[in-house]
Amino acid sequence: MEKTNIQMEVEQLFKKRVERDPKIHNAYLRVHSEKHGIDINLAAGKEAIDPQQPYYIASVSKLFTSVLFGQLVEQGLCSYDDKISQYLEEDVLSNLHIYKGKDYTNEIKIKHLLNNTSGLHDFVEDKPVKGKSMPNLLVDEPDRTWTPLETINWAKENMDNHFPPGEKFHYSDTGYHLLGFIIEKITGSPFHEVLRKNIFEPLDMKYSHFSRTEPAEASPFEVAKLYMHDTDITNNKSLSIMYAGGGIVSTTDDLLKFMRALVHDQILKKETIEKMKGDCGKFFLGIDYGYGLMNIKTVPVLMPAKYNSWGNAGSTGSFMFYHPETDAYLIGTMNQFGYGQKGIRFMLQIADKLLKTTKK
């Protein structure tokens, strides 16, 4: 099918998806395939300004954190099998992983945090044993500022752990906070500075930055409004809960640069990327979770091989995947908390559209 027809098919699918959901105030989509000469750049929703508007990428940030660790491992500065107790202070480690009366903290390795098999709680999605959940606090106490350590201590006090390290899978933003601490310990620099120096600057991601810091070049557009239900939380100080697992602001242009660099082994060696993709926990049926990335894999009948792809997605409906079958990069967001699975499903619909329209 001609490129103009592909553009029209994808654009119609995207706009229809946004228009039928009043909770989506702004959404963005980038579809790029060098193999098929496709480059689609879209924005939709009553509050969308431009396709290159910066937005919070949520847990897509975890892939950036895991790339930083890949670089540190390649430089010989740490190992995936290192225990986290080698790097973290006692105020972080104390009572961190108590499960059924036993302390498993000293058994947690870096790889357990990266692929969410540590057994630690998730301060974002888990239900606290008492009081309000973190998403409720984020909305109800908008002017409260959280340091990463305060967030960890809140989780220790209010949440239960799930199993000993390495035994199962449980998604954990708590674990990614700890990974941020470890990166700072190894490099001697703030997490946002390591991101800038090791990823943003080398890849010319000039509009990308860590939350509450400035990009290399100011975007001509304001940061897209982020919603939790009908509440605009974009400027809430309470968004400081986001750290190494969700604190990046970027654009679809910049994310395309990052994902292309990963696919073409430009910022990590191929064997490092294969390690990140291969050592997985079981996230959902058809989705394994490696080191900061999701692998969408074949499940007979339910998930045909043609949908196989890898990248990451966030709870706001954000997604960033590479789809080898069509050599396509699928990047976007719905900018609404609680839309994680909806974002993945929509990404697969785009992949399906490409598969049908690029057949000769």
Account of the protein in words:
- This protein is an alpha+beta fold and 360 residues long.
- The protein has 2 domains: 3-62 and 193-357, Beta-lactamase (3-Layer(aba) Sandwich), CATH 3.40.710; 77-189, DD-peptidase/beta-lactamase superfamily (Beta-lactamase).
- 34% of the residues lie in helices and 15% in strands.
- It is built from 11 helices and 15 strands.
- An 8-stranded antiparallel sheet has the order 2-1-15-14-13-12-11-10, sandwiched between helices. The chain has a 3-stranded antiparallel sheet with strand order 3-9-6.
Tags for this entry?
single chain; 360 residues; alpha+beta; Beta-lactamase; 2 domains; three-stranded antiparallel sheet; 11 helices; 15 strands; globular; AmpC-like; hydrolase activity; Beta-lactam-related; Class A beta-lactamase-related serine hydrolase; Beta-lactam/transpept-like
Give a quick rundown of the structure.
GO terms for molecular function: hydrolase activity. This is Class A beta-lactamase-related serine hydrolase. The protein is α+β, with helices and mostly antiparallel strands and 360 residues long.
